[in-house]
Amino acid sequence: MTASLAELARYLPHLVLRTEPGDLEHYGRDWTRRWTPAPLAIALPGSIDEVQGIVRWANAHRVAIVPSGGRTGLSGGAVAAHGELVVSFDRMNKVLGFDAVDRTLTVQPGIALQAVHEAARGHGLMYPVDFGARGSCQIGGNIATNAGGIRVIRYGNTRQWIAGLKVVTGGGELLELNRGLVKNATGYDLRHLFVGSEGTLGLVVEATLALTEPPPPCNVMLFALPAMDALMRVFGECRRRLKLEAFEFFTDRALHHVVAHGAQNPFETASPYYVVTEFHENETEALAVFEHCLESGLVTDGVIAQSDAQAAALWKLREGITESLAKYRPYKNDISVRIAVVPDFLDAMQVLLTREYPDFDVVWFGHIGDGNLHINVVKPAHVSDADFIAQCETVTKRMAAILHAHGGSISAEHGIGLVKKPYLASARSEAEIALMRGMKRVFDPHGIMNPGKLFDP
Q1: Residue 1 pLDDT
Q2: Is there a contact between 120 and 126 (Cβ–Cβ < 8 Å)?
Q3: How far apart are CA 363 and CA 375, in angstroms?
Q4: Burial letters for 241-267: b for 16+ Cβ neighbours within 10 Å, e otherwise?
Q5: Which pTM value belongs to this model?
Q6: Conformation bin of residue 178: beta by default, left when phi > 0, alpha when psi is -120 to 50
Q7: How many beta carbons lie within 10 A of that of residue 391, not counting itself?
Q8: Going from the N-terminus, what domains does the chain have, and what CATH number goes with each?
Q9: What are the E-state strand segments in 215-285?
């Protein structure tokens, strides 16, 4: 243990500090696996006071801090590769309170999203933000990246459900933001600066989450589509006639991987595109939608769930994609455009990817109903890691230009981190980036909070 770490241990005698090589590797990386983790140590605070103490020590010694949640991120936002102190919130993982009148749940940042869902259900309510990594991602990380997921089409992103925050700034101050108020017209709402800030301004140490009524009973339907240009027409028909909870699409290559990983394919005949949609239970209207789409040539086959088990099996075809691809360490793009622009954008992307990746396995899926597309490029076995990344980065530069032309974003819901930092200017103007840098200097005067993420120091 270095002299500075020994001082931290004396300063905060109950703080858990870990320096074993296995812990440094485990806590020093996220799902990108592109950088070799090399943190100074792992600090696991158990209280807000300890978090403030860590930040004050880090300022005194000019030690950079990287916040760590479930490390399920895909943009390198939780990577510690240059001697940073990783602050993990694994020990701050409790529900602190429930308010039945305000319908809010107050939690610590290290609680898993699935545990939030279970706590809300225990009170007859729902926290509606949801995605496949629910069992391992943490609410603090969800807030730091303004996570979206599979139900954005109905409920929006994480930002919409944050009623209040407690944060420790880069200067060590504890701020209580909004305090759960529904109306609060007292100047700048600093809460929203921290949502999506990727730990560059400070650390979320407590969150008050808004809850809502669970939806009526829902059902799930899977469509097989003959062509990409049918996607938005099917979406329009479903949105017009059904009360949608989710509308997700994936390609035949995505289905191939998830079936190889253990899921069951309900169709005998292959199609190039698929859609899984969840809607308020109305089987008669759903069947009418399917029949109309079938007669119009928009779909070639379909399945409607007849039980909860079958609904879960259909959802597994979509939610199991990321896990099925994990062993390949794919290069990932997470992009978005306005829903109205999706058809033209998809056409442009199909041309780009077909031209640039003629021999690569490219897996598409995403939240097409809110304009969010995930593109996963699988590395061929004969291509080196360095050559693969270089080729993908070249394509991403061209993709960023297409996104800029369509008014889109290089990061829909995974953040900027290290991966997308070179492309921030495709979505933000020079004036915006300058103001963002200025805000960071105010909240983090010594530049210790997750430096090198979002933009260079």
Answers
A1: 64
A2: yes
A3: 6
A4: ebbbbbbbbbbebbbebbeeeebeeee
A5: 0.91
A6: left
A7: 17
A8: 3-90 (3.30.43.10), 95-210 (3.30.465.10), 218-322 (3.30.70.2190), 329-430 (3.30.70.2740)
A9: 218-225, 244-251, 273-280
